[in-house]
Amino acid sequence: EDAYGRVLAEDVVSKIDVPNFDKSAMDGYAVIAEDTYEASEVHPIKLKVKGRVEAGEAPKIEVFREEAVEVSTGAVIPKGSNAVVMVEYTKEVEGEIEVFKSVRPGENVIAVGSDIMMGETVLRAGQKLTFREVGVLAALGLKKVKVYKKPIVALISTGNELVNPGEPLSYGKIYDINSYSLRGALIECGAQPINLGVASDNENEIKMKVKEALEKADVVITSGSTSAGVGDVMYKVINELGKPGVVIHGLSIKPGKPTIVGIIKEKLIFGLPGYPSSAASIFNALVKPIILKLSGLKIERETFIKAKMPFKVFSAKGRREFIFVHLVKSKDGYLAYPIISDSGAISSFALADGYIDVPAEIEFIEENEEVNVHLFSSKIEVPELIFIGSHCIGVDLAFSLMQKKNYVSSFKIINVGSFGGLKAVERGEADLAGIHLLDEASKEYNLPYLKKMNLIGKAALVKGYSRKQGFIIAKGNPKKIKGFEDLFRSDITFINRNKGSGTRVLIDLGLKEAAKKLGISFEEAKLKVKGYNIEAKTHSAVASAVKYGKADVGVGIEYYAKLNDLSFIPISSESYDFIISIDRLNKEPIKRFLAVLQSKEFQKELTEKFNFIIDNTGEVIC
């Protein structure tokens, strides 16, 4: 009853035959097969019915020539008989049956030991018991089996900034991720996790938590407080609680450099970094194999696949680095799109198909260079639809509706900016891209870039929608900001957008025009803007920086200003459009995507919720 999910600690050898008697596979009549050889629908043969045997009954009847015994499914085959005629091929008449179809010896009979033979090794040590194996154990009549003890693993998160999910989140605080993600990982490894909660960056509090963990668990995993900062005291705690204490502090790896491994009174303790993706990476590489071994589970061989890099990527100089990647199928094989994020981004680990293990001596990977991708799953799912381009809440809405309507079974969204999307379509890696690029010369959105990249005739430009771009500022505009010229003021702090984004193009164009009015160069203008080199990757991040006082102003879409109760000064309405490879236009998921863009449901929510402007949305422009 409790065996499901456990791991066998010994081989299971059957002490019985299964079944342990010859039994009927059908309702019918037990006969001597040779008596039926002449039977047919035209010339049935007659047999005397001698009695009946039910399932679970030990028969006392013996079958002789030209006799039959009625049997139910699962009943013991009476002595003397060697086959069963299905009831459908018989007709009972006054104590006899007419048989309309012949049977061969053994037909419709499940023989002794045909499923499992006595002495057969049925299950082996190290095998994880699913519902199928539990069924086998029941068939063998086993009430108990020896299994590996589940290792008890205590989890402790540390940090003054941590708040439990479900609690209000104040500025400067973050939710505790590691306790929950690592708990799931431990269950997958066959362990029994116990969450001891969050400890603040206080040495005594951490020490008490670790003491409790050592009393309750076989292995202890902490996260946070492992670096060399003032509040990072985990190494002190481990050394003070027992010998030999810390045996490893620091790995030449990214992410995960400040990892600690210790031994206290013969119990392992792992101090993982606080950043979620770092903690997940080190758990996967270092902790997981040990927990699997303790659980009795096999350490699975990693699956690799060859892929090429779509663009040049720089690695951590002097340190081994794990780079998480999306896999995209192209005409020449697979491409590994790096997920550009910092160590704190748990989404990078969750969204990745695998990772590239870059040796310490490698400083960069060239564009189109072939790499080995370590897969997180042995099965590569090729999505029906791949979107690569600039992130937009409108895109998220469209794909949500696609799922809701069962228009697509799987899809992948890779946010790399407008230029990245254009290049992905050009190389045939994306089915569609989202772009919002303003051409400096013509002041026109998107179409000039298709012309510059010679994509006319190779890719279709599909009308999307317009979004109001403008200055996101504190409520009431206390700094009296009016335009780009104000960004040159010494009392104004700006938050920029990332290179390659359409918003960055708009910002640079605005600064160039403002610089021209002042008679200075664009390079001089950039130096005058306090915060020009501080970049946010999303509109939401811009609004957050303004809301919490990190910046006085940034450029983003109106929706995020309203969402954060900030003021908004319009600059322009930008066109967010879609680029689709010509050879993908007739692909069924693309047709459905266009149908969603043109739907009343999509357009209504886009205008009412996000205040976007609809104009021929979903129509092919060129």
Brief descriptors of the model:
622 residues; Molybdenum Cofactor Biosythetic Enzyme, Chain A; Molybdopterin biosynthesis moeA protein, domain 3; 25% helix; six-stranded mixed β-sheet; alpha/beta; 15 helices; D-Maltodextrin-Binding Protein, domain 2; 3 domains
Give the assembly state of these chains: single chain
Tell me, what is the CATH class of the largest domain? Answer: Alpha Beta
Number of beta-strand segments: 34
State the end-to-end distance.
65 Å
Characterize the largest beta sheet: strand count, sense, and whether it forms a barrel. 6 strands, mixed
Describe the protein's architecture and organization.
The chain is α/β, with parallel strands linked by helices and 622 residues long. It has three domains: 23-110, Molybdopterin biosynthesis moeA protein, domain 3 (Beta Complex), CATH 2.170.190; 152-295, Molybdenum Cofactor Biosythetic Enzyme, Chain A (3-Layer(aba) Sandwich), CATH 3.40.980.10; 386-622, D-Maltodextrin-Binding Protein, domain 2 (3-Layer(aba) Sandwich), CATH 3.40.190. The longest helix is centred in the middle third of the chain and has 20 residues, at 276-295. The protein starts with 11 loop residues before the first strand and ends in a 12-residue tail after the last helix.
